[in-house]
Amino acid sequence: MPTDVERWKSEVYGQEIREHLFEFAEEGYDTIPEDERDAWFERFKWWGLYHQRNGQEGYFMMRIGTPNGVMKPGQLRVVGEIASEYATGPGVNPIFGDGYADFTTRQSIQLHWIELSDIPDIFEKLEENGLSTQQACGDSWRNIVGNPVAGKDAREVIDAWPVIHDLNETFKGNDDHSNLPRKWKVSVTGTPDGSGQGDINDLAFEPAYKTIDGEETVGFNVRVGGGLARNEPRFARDIDVWVPPADVSTVAGGLSALFRDNGDREDRYNARIKFLVDEWGADKVRETLQSEYVDFELHTAGRDVREEYTYNTGDGDRNDLIGVHEQHDGSYFIGLNVLVGRMGASDVLELADLASEYGSGEVRLSQRQNIIVTDIPKDAVDEFTSEQLLENYSPDPSPFMRGSVACTGTEFCSLSIVETKNRQVRYARWLKDNVTLPGDVDEFHIHLSGCTASCAQPQIADISLRGMKTRKNGEPVEALDVGLGGGLGAEPQFARWVTQRVPVDEIPGAISNLIETFAAERNDDESFRAFIDRHDNDELDSFVAPEETDYEDPMMHNTKRTWYPYAENDGLDAGPSAPADD
Amino acid sequence: MSDRLLRVNAYTTLDLADVRARGHDFDVNTLGVVNVTAPRKNPDHVTLQVEIDHTTVEMLPAHADEVTLSASEARTIADDLHSYADRVENAQSSGSDDA
Amino acid sequence: MTVRLRVLDDGAWISVNDRREVSVSELWRVEATDFCSCDLVDFVVENFQTVGVNGQTIEVIVYGQCIACGATGETEWLPVGRVIDGEFAVFDESTVRRTRESRKPETNSG
């Protein structure tokens, strides 16, 4: 029996929704018929609009999808202006103020407190400037990711940007692929460092070499069925296919159609393609793709370069893209750390100006919630990196600041169990002030996710933290499960969840104790990941010794039982009413 | 507070401090931001910044107060802050002893 | 009288007549000897799987964890509230919930 969501999608979905959306925007939020609210809110997701949590009814999170995180000159300024004018609401964040933009782990942008009545103006401004929210959420092609500096990175072996651009043009808004059983996440990488994080996507194209007619050509190997959510993490499986760049679109479309036709539409929890790959195996996926969805003979997999992967591996020289790096045209791209991905609107505007002044005005967003300014001439690098703004968005940040990733959390998200972004800021500050890493360790990744949806990609970090609850002195408090030893690379591994339900105020002490043990017992210059790897779960559990310290956590109570965790009167009955039509 | 002067972000030293704004004609307990920073390029001074939520104090327009400190002045303040912090902590812990 | 029941937003909510009524992250007291060996499961609601109706009672199957002993999994049908004269009344947080032995309710998982 099809789910309600399937029924709603078959009635009105895709492009059609826009007309209705604009009508509701004109006439007012309360003209959405009461018995159709669920249906419309589900449909609005196709246009990147996600209804905020309870207590914040009538306000939407808006996601702007920027393929590969590429923001052309002028676009960052537009986002800053929209954030400044529209992304403000009844709740003010004590650390970040009001009016800010969130850079996400899929290289997109999220703005909060957006009112329905402002949507037509916002969409007009976005679209005038080449930006879109289309399909940023919902059951279709999500924002395509990869190495953010595709097309410029001196290390690339193939330019993935035209491929990504072409995929975006072909499949966004394509009626044949706009109603899939679930979300569809695609990654294309052109550098031999793994920076597109293909392994955790539904569909991944990673660089590989194939000898064709005696000549070695670079193209892409194809992997299918990665994903982190809901306690069922999977790495994408090798389906033994290599494609030249010209065929990426056909094969991607073939696999999207295969998913469309064969994914589970009865049970949304079984719908991602990772479960289909589990059920069929990689061989059957390949056979079906070959016989029913493409009309040419697929090559077998080529020689990959996974042995060279360094991104998010816990080792190697390019574990992330922060800092000063060469472009192949002789200028530089500079990765700046945006702590937990959140930047105030006035900072966004200032950075947009600096990017224009020093570079071309272009910036790129990374999967670690950071921002990269491209096209900085060699002789301008020193001056650019001395700019005062970079004090807070540094190309040379402390390891704990640098490695912090956090999802949206109970501030706005219905699914989350705990507070996240502000908490990770507090953790990073405390760790920076109180914990010393061994001198040769200049990166340490801590990912904080509010629940098992895993939007902060917790399973692939040095320390993974995932929202939970526990009791302290009989009272329920927010807690975190602790996972260790996750990372990508030639042999990707998911974190092992070694310690459960640590009260949130004891986490800094736990991390401090763990790092102390690491420093004392590591073999020579063994990486943290390697150190974790050679210990079993019980040993690791003993290293994670939760402890109260001078770290104080103001959000130990149930932040879900507020209309906004940081409001002075935060009771659910003190919340705002849905915004009036004005 | 939309006409804030000091930028509040993840690096602000104290995002939410208790501040008393006191004048001859007013005396208000309110909230404020306290930040310590230094120029990124050739730093030759430390800046201590305070901005209150002026919307709670009618008499005062939006403003931020910024104190320019030499390195040694900054340390003098830091030392004083440390020693008073010790004093407060000692009083709190002996005050909460059961005996 | 039909009541519209749904699991919404990837399991974050139970929606009754297009209103969000029951949320994840709550702590429930559950009597379920097959879930774990605790007398009462100190259950954190992580994700709703299915919602159904059994007479006047709205029931759910939910994935979660006992925060006392760490056992994880899906529960059997647990009550969340009642519909009386078309109005939904949610059960208080302190209610001890247990699965009814009665007939399997009609289901709707989204």
From TrEMBL, chain A:
SUPFAM superfamilies: Nitrite and sulphite reductase 4Fe-4S domain-like, Nitrite/Sulfite reductase N-terminal domain-like
Record keywords: 4Fe-4S, Heme, Iron, Iron-sulfur, Metal-binding, Oxidoreductase
Keyword Cytoplasm set for record: no
Residue intervals of the Nitrite/Sulfite reductase ferredoxin-like domain: 52-128, 325-384
Domain of life: Archaea
Residue stretches making up the Nitrite/sulphite reductase 4Fe-4S domain: 137-293, 401-541
Molecular-function GO term, any one: 4 iron, 4 sulfur cluster binding
Keyword Metal-binding part of the UniProt annotation: yes
One Pfam short name: NIR_SIR_ferr
Residue runs in coiled coils: none
Family named by the database record: Belongs to the nitrite and sulfite reductase 4Fe-4S domain family.
Name recorded for this polypeptide: Probable sulfite/nitrite reductase (Ferredoxin)
Organism, as annotated: Haloquadratum walsbyi (strain DSM 16790 / HBSQ001)
Gene: nirA2
UniProtKB/TrEMBL annotation, chain B:
Pfam (any one): DUF6360
Protein name per Swiss-Prot or TrEMBL: Uncharacterized protein
Species annotation: Haloquadratum walsbyi (strain DSM 16854 / JCM 12705 / C23)
Automatic annotation (TrEMBL), chain C:
DUF8134 domain segment(s): 1-104
Pfam family, one: DUF8134
InterPro entries in the cross-refs: DUF8134
Protein name per Swiss-Prot or TrEMBL: DUF8134 domain-containing protein
Organism: Haloquadratum walsbyi (strain DSM 16790 / HBSQ001)
